[in-house]
Request: fold
Amino acid sequence: MRAAWYERQGPAKEVLVVGEMADPVPAAGEVRIRVAASGINPGDIKKRQNAFGFGMAYPRIIPHSDGAGQVDRVGSGVAPEWVGRRVWCYGAQSYRPFGTAAEFTTVPVDQLAALPENVSTDQGACLGIPGITAHRAVHVGGTVAGRTVLVQGAAGAVGLCAVQLARQAGALVIGTIRSSPEERTAKSAGAQEVFPNDQDLEARVRALAPEGVDHIVEVAFADNIEADVQLLKSGGSIATYATHVETPKIPFWQMVFKNIRLFFLGSDDFPKEAKISAARDLNRALEAGWPGFEISERIPLAEIARAHELVEHPLRPGRVVVTL
Reply:
């Protein structure tokens, strides 16, 4: 099969190789997918860069955990009805060496979902990490039905999924954005109100939720934690999945006095049941007409280094997909 891989970490053009590898064979409980589209997430970039200093877990890595295509073979113990079905998958390169940047990938059968007929493989390739992270971020603190949820960074990949999933679950959803062009993206995902994340945010939110919001989905923990504490009502919660500061400070006593709950979310280690529930709800949203992601770039596998560079330094908003 044609595949991309790296055997050392570093800049995309220096370490990514495209060549031929043996076709994978699904083990017991696994399926093999003929990949049509492979999604790139920030985590894939960080692994290749060694941003967290963990080094190489395997001597050769085919990158990307998310992808979509068609099941062409199943391992023992897997229902043969999967063969021929269009699917999207997640976790292909989570605690595994070979991800979706190849003509074929294998994943456990509980790490894939049928791709709705009205959904393209490009969309399917983008769902996994951001969609499952968003679902956990919305639901980890308990039911949001009838409650007010604030999604920080509502136009980002996780943010727009969180907006849609919180709205689907019956919440009043407020989204924050960095610039006015992002407002359309956040509202198309289902946010009832969208505000700039600026000095007037608290006043605008308080006009809608005088006692404060019930739950916050947070993309920039270090930057926003002090404002988040002010925006939350007593007993509220924060679910955060990203920060640019490795050791952020927190307003401890303010959080204590408000009895705030704080959840840190790492998608690779979510409970299996949470991931399955997320995949189900994401499919429901897509089947109901949620447009999903804007695809900004479709890059062939042979140019995967350029695709990685476009994720690191975007030329325009939207997701980058590697096509096969």
Notes: The longest helix spans residues 272-287. The CA atoms of residues 154 and 175 lie 5 Å apart. The mean pLDDT is 97.
